[in-house]
Amino acid sequence: MAALYSLSDNPVIVLLILLAYLVPLGLLVFRLFLSPLARLPGPWLTRISSIPEANALRDQRRTAWVNELFEQHPGAVAVRTAPWSVSFNTPEAVKAIYGHGKGADEFGKSSWYDAFSTTGESLFSTRSKKRHAAKRRMVAHGFSAQSLLSFEPYVDKTLDRFIRRMDKFAASGHPFDIYFWYELFTMDLMGELALGNNFGVLVAGKPAGYSTLVEQSQRFANTSGLLPFGKWNVKILSWVPTTYIQNLYRARLEYLDYAKVALEQRFSDNAKSEKRISGKPRQDIMQRFIDGQDPETGAKMGFDELRAETSSLMVAGASTGSVTMNWMTYYLCKNPEIKSRIITQLEDMFPENKTGDDSLPYTQLQHLSLLEHAEIESLRMHPPIGYAMPRDTPPKGAIISGIYIPGGVSVGVPAATIGRDATVYPDPNTWNPDRWFKGEGTNLALMKNCFLGFGYGSRQCIGRGVATQFVMKMMARVLLRYDVQLEDQTLMLKTKEFTILKPDKKYNVILKRREDVRL
């Protein structure tokens, strides 16, 4: 104690002690009243803490929470969601934040993405524009039209297994949860494309253990992304001694270990293939990543980087594709006139395959615009990721939709919010694929600019073509082969947020072979 009293006689020590108390107090006053963001609408607690957003994430309603903030402040173009985080809801903000800024005007990816870098940076998680460009150069050819053709046999093989299961449901006439089977289909398909082998879940009729790990791992990353410690977010959150956080962290570690084992098996399989006469490994998405080289430097991805890409691919492909097919099925059942038009177009396109017995080439399906518009409209209303993909304002700050935002502030436009903006999409809560035909009296260019179902600009999802391919092939074949009806014709689905936005309840459909219905 005597030592402490003697320290208090030192004016430097006294000053430091005063500063230890005054700096946090000054920062608090600044954030509450003096910050340029202080006048933005939002809960007062968001001026000093990320707790409201973290609580919304924990309660699986983060997207709904942001939407409610805009509803509580009609006419607001932006709301404050954390001390240094702002969500916008205007077409101008979409272009300003996600457009092709350069140099001092560029909006870079925020530290939120660091939480999604696992054993290395993936195309999704890397914050460096230079590294992202290099990665994209390495694998761009793997998502070309020619590559889609090489992937199609894997899609057809998996789809055949799915159809055999659906035939049994059609024969029995029993109601069943088709979304569950869409999820199994995408699990098996992404296993084929990303790992070189399916999980056997369609045959088993139950999900693989990894699917739960994916969900929990992504929730851990989302939570850590809300912390203010940058690249240390993941490590610091892993120290939080609550059961909830520790369970999520263990799931992350287990999932990464799973990806490691799966990738090691893939390299082993490749080595065996090269010893055969053909000497050529199977040509799927992962092989494109393994073989990919930067055309400028000749660099290739190392094992840890490939492991990170594997983890990212499994999340991006499986979860988003299945939920999109779910919403398409639901809305097509609710809109029989549009469903009938698509079936007529399919029958005209495939007169020798009106029962959907055989595969439907994607090169032809690409010309069926109504079916593609049904997919886009479903993604507009129910984007898999509903909250904003954050970007940091440039160091000198930026004016976004007439509002000055200081440098280093995390900003973004929530896909689920702008997708229901009545100034962009008239009657936004009505599912209407026809709105995408020349805009149907609206500004088609504006609608496309605000569509964030696959991201925007140079960071748009590189796998968009793959996803559209298997979604359209699935929906086309199901519609040709079966009469699909909701068990409960009065069903009204809403959304609940897991890592992605899913239906808020389970529901059943009834399938009948269309040839039986015609008889």
UniProtKB/TrEMBL annotation:
<keyword id="KW-0560">Oxidoreductase</keyword>
<protein>
    <recommendedName>
        <fullName>Cytochrome P450 monooxygenase</fullName>
    </recommendedName>
</protein>
<keyword id="KW-1133">Transmembrane helix</keyword>
<dbReference type="GO" id="GO:0005506">
    <property type="term" value="F:iron ion binding"/>
</dbReference>
<keyword id="KW-0472">Membrane</keyword>
<dbReference type="GO" id="GO:0016705">
    <property type="term" value="F:oxidoreductase activity, acting on paired donors, with incorporation or reduction of molecular oxygen"/>
</dbReference>
<dbReference type="InterPro" id="IPR050121">
    <property type="entry name" value="Cytochrome_P450_monoxygenase"/>
</dbReference>
<dbReference type="InterPro" id="IPR001128">
    <property type="entry name" value="Cyt_P450"/>
</dbReference>
<dbReference type="InterPro" id="IPR036396">
    <property type="entry name" value="Cyt_P450_sf"/>
</dbReference>
<keyword id="KW-0408">Iron</keyword>
<dbReference type="GO" id="GO:0020037">
    <property type="term" value="F:heme binding"/>
</dbReference>
<dbReference type="GO" id="GO:0004497">
    <property type="term" value="F:monooxygenase activity"/>
</dbReference>
<keyword id="KW-0349">Heme</keyword>
<keyword id="KW-0479">Metal-binding</keyword>
<dbReference type="InterPro" id="IPR017972">
    <property type="entry name" value="Cyt_P450_CS"/>
</dbReference>
<feature type="transmembrane region" description="Helical">
    <location>
        <begin position="12"/>
        <end position="34"/>
    </location>
</feature>
<keyword id="KW-0503">Monooxygenase</keyword>
<dbReference type="Pfam" id="PF00067">
    <property type="entry name" value="p450"/>
</dbReference>
<feature type="binding site" description="axial binding residue">
    <location>
        <position position="461"/>
    </location>
    <ligand>
        <name>heme</name>
    </ligand>
</feature>
<dbReference type="InterPro" id="IPR002401">
    <property type="entry name" value="Cyt_P450_E_grp-I"/>
</dbReference>
<comment type="similarity">
    <text>Belongs to the cytochrome P450 family.</text>
</comment>
<keyword id="KW-0812">Transmembrane</keyword>
